[in-house]
Design brief:
The protein is built from 5 helices and 5 strands. It is an alpha+beta fold and 138 residues long. It has one domain: Aspartate Aminotransferase, domain 1 (Alpha-Beta Complex). Strands 1-2-3-4-5 form a 5-stranded antiparallel beta sheet. Strand 3 and strand 4 form a beta hairpin. The longest helix has 14 residues. It is globular, with a radius of gyration of 15 Å.
Length: 138
């Protein structure tokens, strides 16, 4: 499923995002605020990947993307990519076994292992915050 924002010529606005995400917009704001608080010098940007994937919102430090926020219709996905040191930390952490298994079983690329999580409600926010912190610290 690709982004709800597919027009390459129009970068999404906050108003567009609120309308698209509905009730989950506040959850996206919470993740963005948490990430900025944890990594104050992080940079936010919208990026158009391709016609297949559309627009995504990224928060980056100077050398890498910390977190990807991928808008969908009435929800969004969070994507994170981890190197081996971060994976080792995650597997020893108290995040859910479901997410640990997903990371452990993810295909390993040169950049690391990735995970994508659907954010439909606040239940997953704790894991997302822990994973974001691990990403920032590793």
């Amino acid at each position: 499923m690709k982004s709800i924002f597919t027009n390459k010529e129009i970068s999404p606005s906050t108003k567009d995002l609120k309308k698209a995400l509905g009730e989950t917009f506040v959850l996206l704001e919470e993740i963005v605020n948490f990430t900025q608080k944890t990594k104050p010098d992080a940079k936010e940007e919208w990026k158009y990947s391709s016609e297949k994937y559309g627009w995504s919102f990224r928060i980056s430090d100077k050398k890498r993307v910390i977190i990807y926020l991928l808008p969908r219709d009435k929800f969004f996905k969070v994507a994170l990519l981890f190197g081996q040191k971060a994976v080792d930390t995650i597997l020893k952490s108290d995040i859910s076994e479901k997410n640990k298994t997903e990371i452990k079983n993810a295909k390993v690329y040169a950049e690391g292992r990735g995970i994508r999580m659907d954010v439909m409600d606040a239940a997953i926010l704790s894991d997302i915050k822990k994973l974001t912190t691990i990403k920032i610290n590793n």
